[in-house]
Model the fold of this input.
Amino acid sequence: MVLYQLNRPLPRLLICSNCGGFLIGYAIKGKRTHYYKCNGCKHINMNAKTTKASRNLGLNDAFKELLSGVVLNNEVVDVFKLQLKKCSLICIRVQMIN
Ligand SMILES: [Zn+2]
Done:
């Protein structure tokens, strides 16, 4: 896995709650920090990682927390696995934290 994928694994997986466009990832090399942003909305910009200085969870950790709350009924596990195999892209709407 490429280094940027480890730091920003969610680009084009998350949808901007403001305009519906995909969020993309970028880094500021001098600061070694990673972010997600919406190209359509200049004010939608979030930390990828949780830092000591950040007020909110980074989007990577917020996504993990969201998924940890998902519990599948045993009856749908096999169907869900099959659907994951068929999908090349999973889009999950995440409530944006501003
Ligand atoms: Zn947007």
Notes: The helical segments are 3-7, 59-68, 74-86. Confidence is low (pLDDT under 50) at residues 88-98. Residues 3-93 form one domain.
